[in-house]
């Protein structure tokens, strides 16, 4: 047992030191794309990537100016393009999710805290714009009790007009290490008791929410 | 509540159900021929689900089993579920059944699960192997949910085949690379 | 909201899967001398003529396109290996171990590094056969779906992607049907208490 554990610890350590930022960004992008709800913004990762992109852009400009071999320059440009694609796609997927669940994100602290400062600003501006648009076109013309954008009528017990992310969608995932029952929420202990490492699994998203947040699972 | 803007959710609730009034109701009439606005206890009529549900919550009506889940349909499904034209019974057969089951007849749930399990296999095969033209008659029998499933499979397959043929790979859009000022 | 509903948001296009596959490593034999490349995604090189090196496929193809290297066929793509894999696929219900991105890698190499593949047509036809047998297994496995968690060993990226949309919907439907017999429709659990608003205007009920 001891040797197995230390072997897997070594695996993890090696993975940690050899995983580049691009790999991490790719992972974050994949997870974000596959998950039905918005995930935690990887602010330090994004910051580092942005800095590396800027550096690379400057390098390319300087190289072009100094007539460095065009082949080399074009290869650096390709690497730059690939990284930029990942970053842009990552940010774009998040924005799409925010737009889709606009009101819910703003009123749920759990989700609001997962957004970056700029995303929060975006969300607020969107709700203001959308709110005033719906107000002008429809809501203000309805009778008094029905003018809310969140509740169908003032007698509704909760915000029944707000779309909610569906956590019961099925996703495909791989565990990075062996997961036992303890890694999952106890309320799902009947549904899922363990997960082997590196095995493709179709599973209901809400069952694996906890290990995903802990970084033990990757969505595919 | 999560589906306020979802067209399919709205349409599901437009399906009609038979109801029996448990109380006498003033101020409305269900039969155009009567003069006064009054419904007697025990009267029967068909109401859209959204309305029947609300009244059921107030214990004003009891909800019966609509035609699409009746004995005849059940027998047909048991005989050969894959060939039953569920779309003409009710295009939202499953969604409607799910909403209805807790209110009037829990066995509807079992019927839905059974029918789905069998028809799913048909959809699976037709979606991944047959060309669209050949399957079009089959498609006419499918409910909305089954149709979405079929279309999902078809479009995935088509996208894959298109990729396999080769073609333009991911390219840099020409608009990128120009810096924009951040909006305040 | 109505305008932005995009259920395809969670789907990966084949091109995106290929993009990820392009990061897989492959061996090249450069015919030029080049200093190390310090990319954002990692460091590669320096390159010496005739000395084999490991680089990501996108880099290998870029160099190949400009005639600066040849690409060594990955070991798993040899005719002997593929023939063995094909036989094993045919004989067994399980999926044989193949690189996760085998479909994308082979297509990239066929399209852009044709000359470097001895007996290319043979290799290609073996891979197509393997893919067909495996996809048939995918369908057979899909038939056995139930509401519970499903695991698949050795399935590849492209195979997973092709059935992702369909399988997701199917599993969700199974889950819903198998569970709604235990729990009532959750949409309504919250307004179980009858609401009797006093100031709602009366309306006439019109039957059809």
Subunit arrangement of the protein? heterotrimer
Mean pLDDT score of chain C, rounded? Answer: 82
Counted up, domains of chain A total 3
As for the number of domains of chain C, it is: 2
CATH class placement of the largest domain in chain C? Mainly Alpha
Q: Strands across the major sheet of chain A, in which order?
A: 2-1-3
What is the CATH class name of the largest domain in chain A?
Mainly Alpha
Unreliable segments of 5+ consecutive residues of chain A = none
Distance between the termini of chain A: 30 Å
Q: Give the CATH topology of the largest domain in chain A.
A: Methane Monooxygenase Hydroxylase, Chain G, domain 1
Q: What is the number of helical segments of chain C per DSSP (H or I, 4+ residues)?
A: 6
CATH architecture of the largest domain in chain A: Up-down Bundle
Backbone shape of chain A: flat
> Biggest chain pair contact, residues each?
B-C, 55 and 48 residues
Could you describe the largest sheet of chain C, including whether it forms a barrel? 3 strands, antiparallel
Largest sheet report of chain A: 3 strands, antiparallel
Strand arrangement within the widest β-sheet of chain C reads: 4-1-5
Key traits:
heterotrimer, A: 220 residues, mainly alpha, Methane Monooxygenase Hydroxylase, Chain G, domain 1, Ribosomal Protein L9, domain 1, 3 domains, 3-stranded antiparallel beta sheet, 3 strands, 55% helix, flat, B: mainly alpha, 2 domains, two-stranded antiparallel sheet, 10% strand
Walk me through what this model shows.
The complex is a heterotrimer of chains A (220), B (184) and C (208). Helices cover 55% and strands 6% of the residues of chain A. By secondary structure, chain A is mainly alpha-helical. In chain B, α5 packs antiparallel against α6 and α6 (107-129) runs parallel beside α8 (144-164). The model of chain B has no long low-confidence stretch (mean pLDDT 82). Chain C folds into 2 domains: 13-72, Ribosomal Protein L9, domain 1 (3-Layer(aba) Sandwich); 75-183, Up-down Bundle (Methane Monooxygenase Hydroxylase, Chain G, domain 1). Helix content of chain C is 42%, strand content 11%. In chain C, the strands form 2 sheets. In chain C, strands 4-1-5 form a 3-stranded antiparallel beta sheet. In chain C, strands 2-3 form a two-stranded antiparallel ribbon. The model of chain C is unreliable at 1-6 and 183-208 (pLDDT under 50). Chains in contact: A-B, A-C, B-C. Chains B and C meet through β4, α2, α5, α6 and α8 of B and α1, α5 and α6 of C. β2 (200-204) of chain A pairs antiparallel with β6 (150-152) of chain C.
């Amino acid at each position: 047992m001891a040797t197995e554990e230390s072997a897997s610890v070594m695996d993890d350590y090696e993975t940690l030191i050899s995983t580049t930022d691009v790999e991490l960004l790719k992972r974050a992008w994949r997870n974000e794309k596959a998950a039905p709800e918005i995930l935690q913004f990887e602010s330090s990762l994004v910051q580092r990537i942005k800095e590396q992109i800027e550096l690379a852009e400057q390098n390319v400009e300087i190289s072009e100016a100094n007539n460095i071999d065009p082949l080399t320059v074009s290869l650096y440009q390709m690497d730059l393009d690939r990284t930029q694609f990942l970053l842009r796609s990552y940010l774009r997927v998040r924005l799409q999710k925010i737009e889709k669940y606009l009101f819910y994100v703003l009123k749920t602290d759990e989700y609001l805290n997962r957004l970056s400062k700029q995303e929060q600003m975006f969300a607020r501006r969107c709700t203001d714009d959308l709110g005033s648009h719906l107000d002008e076109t429809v809501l203000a013309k309805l009778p008094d009790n029905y003018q809310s954008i969140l509740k169908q009528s003032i007698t509704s017990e909760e915000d029944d007009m707000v779309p909610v992310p569906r956590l019961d969608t099925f996703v495909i995932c791989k565990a990075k290490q062996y997961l036992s029952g303890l890694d999952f929420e106890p309320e799902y202990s009947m549904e899922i008791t363990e997960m082997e490492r590196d095995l493709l699994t179709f599973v209901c998203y809400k069952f694996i929410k906890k290990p995903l947040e802990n970084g033990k699972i990757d969505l595919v | 509540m999560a589906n306020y803007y979802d067209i399919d959710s709205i349409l599901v609730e437009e399906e009609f159900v038979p109801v029996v009034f448990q109380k006498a109701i003033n101020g409305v009439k269900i039969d155009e021929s009567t003069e006064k606005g009054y419904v007697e206890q025990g009267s029967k009529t068909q109401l859209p689900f959204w309305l029947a549900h609300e009244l059921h919550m107030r214990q004003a009506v009891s909800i019966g089993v609509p035609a699409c889940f009746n004995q005849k349909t059940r027998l047909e499904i048991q005989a050969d579920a894959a060939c039953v034209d569920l779309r003409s019974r009710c295009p939202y057969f499953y969604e409607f059944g799910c909403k209805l089951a807790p209110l009037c007849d829990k066995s509807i749930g079992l019927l839905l699960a059974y029918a789905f399990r069998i028809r799913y296999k048909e959809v699976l095969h037709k979606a991944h192997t047959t060309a669209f033209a050949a399957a079009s008659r089959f498609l006419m029998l499918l409910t909305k949910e089954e149709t979405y499933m079929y279309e999902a499979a078809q479009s995935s397959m088509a996208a894959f085949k298109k990729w396999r043929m080769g073609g333009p790979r991911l390219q840099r859009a020409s608009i990128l690379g120009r810096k924009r000022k951040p909006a305040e | 909201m109505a305008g932005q509903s995009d259920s395809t948001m969670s789907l990966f296009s084949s091109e995106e899967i290929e993009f990820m596959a392009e990061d897989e490593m492959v061996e090249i034999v450069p015919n030029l001398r080049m200093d190390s490349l310090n990319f954002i995604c990692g460091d590669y090189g320096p390159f010496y003529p005739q000395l084999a090196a490991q680089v990501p496929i996108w880099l290998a193809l870029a160099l190949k396109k400009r005639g600066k290297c040849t690409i060594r066929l990955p070991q798993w793509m040899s005719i002997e290996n593929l023939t063995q894999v094909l036989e094993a696929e045919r004989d067994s219900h399980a999926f044989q171990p193949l690189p996760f991105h085998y479909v994308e890698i082979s297509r990239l190499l066929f399209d852009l590094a044709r000359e470097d593949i001895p007996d290319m047509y043979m290799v290609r036809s073996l891979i197509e056969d393997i893919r067909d047998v495996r996809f048939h297994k995918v369908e057979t496995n899909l038939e056995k779906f139930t509401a519970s968690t499903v695991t698949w060993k050795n399935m590849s990226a492209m195979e997973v992607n092709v059935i992702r949309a369909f399988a997701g919907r199917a599993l969700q439907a199974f889950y819903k049907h198998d569970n709604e017999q235990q729990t009532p429709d959750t949409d309504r659990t919250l307004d179980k208490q009858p609401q009797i608003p006093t100031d709602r205007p009366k309306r006439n009920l019109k039957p059809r």
